[in-house]
Specification:
Elements lengths: L2 E8 L2 H9 L4 E9 L8 H6 L5 E9 L5 H10 L8 E2 L2 E2 L5 E5 L2 H16 L7 E4 L4 E2 L7 H5 L13
């Protein structure tokens, strides 16, 4: 089995994690933080201090069964990639839309998907950033919707491809 990891920021990590964990071929999706300038940030840090981190989901997947492109497509279909100030009712810099790429191939895949969305008339706000250190969020953030039995309040599936 060829195991890889991908990193997506699409607003509150609870909803992003929820949808990725349901995808066949995904081994695990974890909530965490990436992109900032503070070592070992906590949820309180990213909410109340200027750490520069985004709420990010680390997706561990079986690359023999699932392509990076299909993960990136799902990402663009489970959040609003046109929102510039957060996601749904969650407003703030930690909720921005971004893909953290690990290599040039991933970057090209995301760029092509953004071009396709823009040809459909969407003004995509999603940033493409280089992968940085991933910090796993506190335990109470992991598998939030599975634990509570609730459903995402600011994420839903919208077919775009």
């Amino acid at each position: 089995m060829k195991i890889k990891k991908a990193y997506f920021a699409g607003g509150c990590f609870w909803g992003v994690e929820y949808y990725f964990n349901k995808e066949d071929g995904v081994l695990d999706a974890l909530s965490g933080f990436m992109g900032g300038h503070t070592l070992n940030p906590t949820y309180q840090d990213i909410c109340y201090k200027d750490t520069g981190h985004l709420e990010v989901v680390e997706v561990k997947y079986n690359a023999d069964r699932l392509s990076y492109e299909s993960l990136a497509k799902l990402f663009f279909e489970i959040h609003n990639p046109t929102q510039t100030n957060g996601q749904g009712p969650d407003i703030g810099p930690q909720y921005l839309s971004a893909v953290f790429v690990s290599n040039e191939e991933e970057k090209e895949v995301v760029e092509e998907l953004i071009k396709k969305l823009e040809k459909k008339g969407l003004h995509v706000a999603t940033k493409i950033l280089e992968k940085q250190e991933f910090y796993v969020a506190e335990d109470y953030h992991q598998y939030y919707y599975q634990k509570t039995g609730k459903i995402p309040y600011c994420h839903s599936y919208t077919r775009r491809f």
